[in-house]
Amino acid sequence: MRIAELSKVSGVPAPTIKYYMREGLLFPGERTSPNQMQYDDSHVRRLKLVRALIEVGGLSVAATREVLDKMRTPGMTVLESAGKAQFAMSKPPAGEPDDAQLAAADQVRDLLARRGWQVRETNPARGTLAAVLATLGRLGQQHWDLLDDYAELAERIAAKEIDTLLRQPNAESMAEALVVWTALGDAMFSALRRLAHEDAASAYIATPSATS
Predict the structure, then answer these.
(1) Is pLDDT at 19 greater than 60 in this prediction?
(2) Which UniProt keywords apply (predicted)?
């Protein structure tokens, strides 16, 4: 298919497709003449993945490019590359950690030990979580009893997600699903939590519809 048809099939405007190509998010098609390129279903699939990561997952173009690059790291299996891609989606804060972040890092270490989680020291999500805990502390929101509740929910969700991933038909599909569920799963859980907040609050706060 030519770029006009690729645009129609994927739902992505042709100028956006060309932009994705310039940014290295979409691999080139097969050149059939000096001015013509042919594309196939693999380009449609990649476009859908790129749009999902950027528009729903909230990743920047640069982060999306890094994730896609790491999905095919030379010398690694597909699943090892997918793990690298997942790490790329969790960037810890830049700069040297202050005392609050160092103390929060100890909290994270204690949490992992308490729950028996096997997590590498190099996992950037450790730094992200420590930064969140440090910020909560600075804001006077030290409700640390919620931390294990969050962890318990995350553990249950992760177990079901991994079970679903392992039922994918091949390693490549498994790797793509891991990346997609990491990005979109974050967005989905955030949306669900906000909906649940309103529902939980309605038990304590009278809404206009309830009093009219």
Answers:
(1) yes
(2) DNA-binding
Domains observed in the chain: 1-56 (1.10.1660.10), 57-206 (no CATH)
Q: Can you say whether residue 29 is alpha, beta or left, with left for phi > 0 and alpha for psi between -120 and 50 degrees?
A: beta
Whole-structure pTM value: 0.79
User: If you ran DSSP here, which 8-state letter would residue 91 be given?
Assistant: P
CA 118, 81, 191 angle in degrees (round to 5)?
Answer: 70
Instruction: List own/partner pairs for 106-109 with CB under 8 A and 24 or more apart.
Output: 107/133, 107/144, 107/147, 108/133
The DSSP secondary-structure symbol of 30 reads: E
Of 9-13, 33-37, 104-108, 114-118, the one with minimum mean pLDDT is 33-37
Please name which of 161, 200, 163, 166 lies closest in space to residue 184, comparing C-alpha atoms. 161
Instruction: Kindly state the percentage of the chain with pLDDT values over 70.
Output: 96
Q: Residues 94, 99, 104, 107: what is their CA dihedral angle, to the nearest 10 degrees?
A: 140
Helices marked H in 23-170? 41-51, 61-70, 78-88, 99-115, 124-138, 145-165
The string of pLDDT tens digits covering residues 40-99 is: 999 999 999 999 999 988 889 998 998 888 887 777 777 777 788 888 887 777 778 888
